[in-house]
Write a structure and sequence with these properties.
With 124 residues, the protein is mainly beta. 14% of the residues lie in helices and 39% in strands.
């Protein structure tokens, strides 16, 4: 399977464009998750109200999958997203960027009409 393909799970429509991780994001996630602890690299991606533009992105490592979550795969990394957040995030890609002022994960969301300067919040 190509690195940017999504493995659909039951209940997930294969026709929908989901969330993809760039090679750089996959590389960084694999660095941050210690395989000796027996943890599968899994990134939870969510949207919550707030932030200077209206909605904020939440990215964290997680192992729990709830009944309202979708499980996607990109680059061999599990991506967990609740269905409500998925409606805001479909078609997004997540990259890991390095700049003179810092480094971190950056969400590129085609549904965002406007983003704040730091890129952590958006509006539709």
């Amino acid at each position: 399977m190509k690195k940017d393909m999504v493995e659909p799970n039951p209940g997930t429509s294969a026709e929908r464009q989901m969330i993809t991780l760039t090679d750089k994001a996959v590389e960084e996630i694999r660095k941050l998750v210690d395989p000796e602890e027996g943890m599968e690299p899994a990134l939870r991606v969510a949207v919550q109200g707030g932030g200077c533009a209206g909605f904020s992105y939440v990215l964290k490592f997680d192992t729990d999958v709830g009944e309202t979550d979708e499980v996607l795969y990109s680059g061999g990394v599990k991506v967990i997203v609740d269905r409500k957040s998925l409606s805001f995030l479909e078609g997004s890609s997540i990259d890991f960027v390095t700049s003179p002022v810092g480094s971190g994960f950056k969400v590129r969301n085609p549904k965002a009409a406007r983003s704040c300067a730091c890129g952590n919040s958006f509006s539709l």
